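Bug #77: duplicate submission created two jobs. Keeping one. Sequence:
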Amino acid sequence: MVVIGAVLIAAAAVLAVLAARALRRYAEQRGLERVRPRALAAMRGEDVTVTGAAVAGPGGRDESPLARLACVWHGHEVLRHYWSVEADARTGERERRADPIADYTSEEPFALVAPGEEGTSGPVLVDPADAAVEGVGLALQRVVGRPEKGVKAPADDLLPRVKGRISGLFRGETIEFEYREWLLAPGAPVAVSGRVELREGRPVIAAPPDGRVRIVRLGSADGAPEAARSRRQALLLGGGTLASACAGLLMVLGVV
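Kept job's structure:
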């Protein structure tokens, strides 16, 4: 009995260490899920994934240049559709192709807050420069035909609003121009993966030295309750520690 009791007490000591680690993980995950700046600041230099609601950053709410909708991030591209110069060897017909001639994404930081706290200030920032953005739907898609001789040119009010440089080889005969724009609306649920930096004392999720920030637009059911899982694990290990310690002490003291 003494031997079994001693083994149980030793097991309790091991479980206590594991329970302490699980409790620390729970505290970290709880801070991340609540998007608390102190929790992020403590993880400076580490890679993290944080979920929350995207809200306006220090520069205020942005507006997408093409659709002119309120957003916290936007990106657009312009495609030039054209007929190829050379004809197909089999059919003798020219092929329809498309080349991107403009590509732009906003780089102004936006803030991340816990869901339901959209009205509060957002001290945790996301640097979206050259970010990989996924799951964002089209806010605008418009095709404008090229001007033809003797025909009134179609209205193209989007061209002056394109940001960035328009460039390309412009080979072949132009058919039309296609404008596409994506955006993140204020309050959109997102998961952001990147490295934690401190800028002027404020935690910022930015690109790691060898990669890019990843921003994923989530659905209402997406996002894993990591803190809840860590809490359950900590409770189970803590309960196991207490049970093993009590059983071991009772066996040892019972013999004595």
